Amino acid sequence: RLAPQSQVYSINIYIYIYNNLIRNSNMPIYDTKSIILKQHLSIGFPTEENFAIETSTINSDDIPNGGILLQVLVASSDPYLRGRMRPEGDFVEGKVIKTFVSGKVLHSNNENWVAGDLLGGSLPLSSYQIIPPELFSQTAIWKLTGLIDESEISLGIGILGMPGSTAYGGLIDVLRPNEGETIFISAAAGAVGSLVGILAKKLYNCKVIGSCGGDEKVKLVKEKYGFDHVIDYKKYSTVEELTKALKEVAPEGIDMYFENVGGIHFEAALNSLRVRGRIAVCGTISDYNSDYSKSFSKIIPIKMVYSQQRIEGFMCAEWLTHKKGNFLQDMHKWYREGVLIKQETIFNGIESWVASFQSLFNGTNIGKTVVVL
Amino acid sequence: RLAPQSQVYSINIYIYIYNNLIRNSNMPIYDTKSIILKQHLSIGFPTEENFAIETSTINSDDIPNGGILLQVLVASSDPYLRGRMRPEGDFVEGKVIKTFVSGKVLHSNNENWVAGDLLGGSLPLSSYQIIPPELFSQTAIWKLTGLIDESEISLGIGILGMPGSTAYGGLIDVLRPNEGETIFISAAAGAVGSLVGILAKKLYNCKVIGSCGGDEKVKLVKEKYGFDHVIDYKKYSTVEELTKALKEVAPEGIDMYFENVGGIHFEAALNSLRVRGRIAVCGTISDYNSDYSKSFSKIIPIKMVYSQQRIEGFMCAEWLTHKKGNFLQDMHKWYREGVLIKQETIFNGIESWVASFQSLFNGTNIGKTVVVL
Hints:
In chain A, 32% of the residues lie in helices and 26% in strands. By secondary structure, chain A is an alpha/beta fold. Chain A folds into 2 domains: 4-158 and 342-372, Medium-chain alcohol dehydrogenases, catalytic domain (Quinone Oxidoreductase, Chain A, domain 1, Alpha-Beta Complex), CATH 3.90.180; 162-319, NAD(P)-binding Rossmann-like Domain (Rossmann fold). In chain A, helix 7 packs across helix 8. The longest helix of chain A has 23 residues, at 4-26. The radius of gyration of chain A is 23 Å and the shape is globular. Strand 14 (310-313) of chain A pairs antiparallel with strand 14 (310-313) of chain B. Chains A, B: Residues 33-133 form the Oxidoreductase N-terminal domain.
């Protein structure tokens, strides 16, 4: 019989061997942290109370045939996730939430992937995770290897990810600009809006008008992104005031509106929309913490006939998954050429994810919100 | 000096010579009747008081180089003309109104036309008229020679005219059906709606649901046009009731809505619209005698994002003038093959034009309203 102290000693040796020899030499086991939804939220501002951090381990020996083990390097927080938090949304209480992430493959049992490959994907928000083979056909996962290296991985949740494909598809295929037309973009300092404006200016020579809140963002949108006019929406509280502000910079009206905000923005844009005008509805962040059914807008259908106008809601999936367009190659090329501008607000650690998410709704973020894990 | 009786005799001889020798032999002069707008009408039902008949003569010697002299054989009355009657509309008090007509060329000084040619056009509502050369580029005028003979001239204001091109463009290019989808069409017994349903059924194998008013129209739409389901809208007076009626025949919702009516129809259709659903707004006849600004509909833009829905107003001009599609050839072919069905309500004489126009708003017309001049 061993003395108690020997037992402790013996256990410590096992732990030492496990941590330093078995674990580190073969790296089969990873401590992973995940964000889970603790509580749905119907109306109101999301708080730390709605989420929790869960820790667990992942064993690389558990990767099935056709699967890979992914290390998530950066995770995204995006306004649309607010809708997922509602009781009728996709997030399930007690389960890991899903968002867009970018990372690198650590182990692969899949012939399409090798260790070191970089990817972007719509995946669980867990720092390490096994992607089983069936998931590749069920969610958007795209390869970034050959386009960027690890130091640029945040592009995978920005210009080369959801925001990039949303701007690309929404502008090019939904709005379909003609050379020299006038476009109005709300949330112009945001991850999507800024790219829309830059593309509209540089690809189509559009007259580009943005709206955003506060002096710092106005300056950024005008000087760095090169918009022709910027409206500080915080100065206006009614449809009439915003319509007037828009008319001052676009006296002959607008041909296109890229909608990220909703509410009075939608109606002011509709008031200003010319013959053959188009509205691409990407999101309506001003509604996200409110009761949707009270967030309606008014349209007069017969006016849409005479003016041959179109209002179209869209999501990025078709472009992100290359069913339409050539998003990844085109956006990568334009980024390398300096056409596109990367602008990020960085949060450090998965623990900061909720704060990064909140920053979208209190306006403290600028550009793409990136959580570095 | 001639006696007074001789003078009368002499004048009568001149008249005889003019009418029977000069006029009839060379046919240079035509008595023409036109419909002029007497009085704009903002809100309310159009009456005989709003219009007047004007008579004048046209001399074929006055045809300029590049012009033609047209005999209008049939004239159209269409719901959209109600908007033109408003003070802000295109009709000018004291001036001839413009509508779609079909007729034949009597004299031509234009190398593209010969006497006997048949045409359709958006033209003044005058029984005889000179079309000056510049008008050919300013309005829609299309040749029907080779497709139909004079006995079928009413097709030029129906299947081979505005209603045909509206149905064609609105269905094929605006709604863009996928095989087997479900479409809902209001004013299904009308000139446009009936063609939309027939094309959706026969070209795309759609499940076709129509709405119209009264037993006679319901029977026509179901039995003659072959719609799968018909809703008699006169039985329903609220959005909720109409939504429920639509749900009974389309329990899984609709993929497309072809809007001719507006009001509760629009909202019931929107309530029933599925993911990737489209609404083509062609007209909203229920609003036409009302204050437009009170005829708004409510949309919830964020719902259009998640559902990737589209609402699009359109007019037929691009298809009618062959900038898009192959309307005239396609519709002619389908008519000859028996795919399309001609259904007309005939009014005789230009004097009956106002009555024909009223029939559109009191529901007494069936199919295409044709005024034979």
